[in-house]
Amino acid sequence: MYKSVETLLVEIPTIRPHKMAVATMQTQTLVLVKITAEDGLTGWGEATTIGGLGYGEESPESVKTNIETYFAPLLKSLKGLNVAQTMQAIKRNINGNRFAKCAVQTALLDIQAKRLGQPLSEVLGGRLQNSIPVLWVLASGDTGKDIAEAQKMIAAQRHNIFKLKIGSRAVEADVEHVLAIKQALGKDISIRVDVNRAWSELEAVKGISLLQNGGVDLIEQPCAIDNIDAMERLTRKFDIAIMADESLMGPHSAYHLAKRNAASVFAVKIAQSGGLIEGCEVGKIAKLAGIDLYGGTMLEGPVGTIASAHAFSTFESLAYGTELFGPLLLTEEILKTPLQYRNFELAVPQQAGLGIELDEDKLDNLRRS
Ligand code: MUC
Ligand code: MG
To answer: Were 271 and a residue from 99, 157, 285, 327 both cysteine, which residue would form a disulfide, CB within 3.0 to 4.6 Å?
Structure first.
């Protein structure tokens, strides 16, 4: 049923260093998967991560090896199964590997949606929106540069909500940086911070109090991935939104976080969830638990970004918008027609499948040999 499965590592420099508590990125390694079915239809998926093994449990190299060694032979051996049955066979044979599973599932859904002549969003139950809001992440590491960058984005009508990466400096220095940006941009511009799990609970109590008083709207992943007790206490203690990102690893952890009241917002990521279908399941759990939603990114290129957009377009509510800006952080375009960002939103394509066309000559030039 599937005749070829190819995994490419594609290196693209970023437009500026992207500084986070977990890593500083100067380039991004896109992990792209291309699957061709027996009927000749091809589908694309993406399993990009951040900072090698600095962020998650899968590296670009491990995803490539595992897809080539385990996923590809299995996919080629399966006959007459639909996407759900194919993913069930994969889950029975392969543990973990959520990023790789997401990339493979995306490619299978791309093929199936193309076969049906429908946008991928329709295979997921149907879109409720044709475009979704996208914020920008300020992470140059310099307060003045961040302010200038934000002002440029607002003037160009590209982004009017900003997330700031903090956690690599002392709490007081980070708070000073954030509040200077908040003050420069004014009260109508929403500012959120992502601590990327860098704070102890006591540091979080200090930092969150100061940021809440300074008018910041949301605190993302303040404490360690496994420190659900701290996340629960912080969510109860503060009025400001506390968002789970790294702690949220798919439907099971969504269920447990919701049960514990360990977050007021979920950052849904298709790769962290283990697929688009599982990302939608996380969205359903949040909805049932009264938890607000935000569309997250692993700083993917256009394939993972638009796959995420198809999934998020089916959500009834995206109270905190999305951060699907990954392709805008890269210096090279790998699509024949770039994704459409305008009026602070990203358009969800109307064409069949993901609705994008990869520039394969460009990929050949950029891929790791
Ligand atoms: C993260 O932790 O949210 C998303 C945007 C960004 O700049 O970094 C990522 C990862
Ligand atoms: Mg985050």
So the answer is: 99
